[in-house]
C-alpha cells in the first residue's frame, strides 16, 4: 500500500495520533511521516482534522435536516455553479451531487425546525436553478462518519424465584 494512503487511513480513524505512532505502525521514520503529512496538508488532500461530537449529550438544540433539490440547469452552467453557491451558506454542512429523483443533497443545521424551514424557503428555494426541494428532518443519529453514537442498552432479566 502507498505510504500516503496508509497514513490517510490511520489519520482518518484517529486524527489525534502522534507522528511516532504512525511511524511505528508503518515501519517508517518520524521524519518520513512528518514530511508526508505536511505534503498532504499542503496540497489540500488533508482538508481538516475533525472531531465527531454526540450533540444529543450536550443538549444544544441543533436541528439537522437533509434537503434534496431538483435543479434545472441553464445553458452554460452545470451543477458546480449551484453547488458552489449553496456551499457558501453557513447553515449548510455538506453538499453532494446524487443520483435518483433529485440532483443535489444538502445537510443543513439550524437552531430550530422553523429556522431550517425558513432557510430552505428563503435562501434555497429562491435560487433560479432550483425547481423543487424535499426536506427531511433528522430525528436521531445512530452513526456518524463510522462512529456509533448510541450503544444498545442491555437489559438484564430478573431471576425467576419459585
Q: Can you name the CATH architecture of the largest domain?
A: 2-Layer Sandwich
Please give the CATH class of the largest domain.
Alpha Beta
Shape estimate: flat
What is the total tally of β strands?
6
N-to-C span = 62 Å
- The CATH H-level superfamily of the largest domain is Lrp/AsnC effector binding domain/regulation of amino acid metabolism (RAM) domain
Roughly how many Å is the radius of gyration? Answer: 22 Å
Instruction: Estimate the strand proportion.
Output: 15-25%
Please explain how this structure is put together.
- This protein has 162 residues and is α+β, with helices and mostly antiparallel strands.
- The chain has two domains: 3-42, Arc Repressor Mutant, subunit A (Orthogonal Bundle), CATH 1.10.10; 55-140, 2-Layer Sandwich (Alpha-Beta Plaits), CATH 3.30.70.
- Helices cover 35% and strands 21% of the residues.
- It has helices at residues 3-13, 19-26, 30-42, 55-58, 79-87, 113-124, and strands at residues 63-71, 92-97, 104-110, 130-137, 143-144, 147-148.
- The strands form two sheets. Strands 2-3-1-4 form a four-stranded antiparallel beta sheet. A two-stranded antiparallel ribbon has the order 5-6.
- Strand 5 and strand 6 (147-148) form a beta hairpin.
- Helix 2 (19-26) crosses helix 3.
- The longest helix has 13 residues, at 30-42.
Q: What would you say about this model in short?
A:
The protein is an alpha+beta fold.
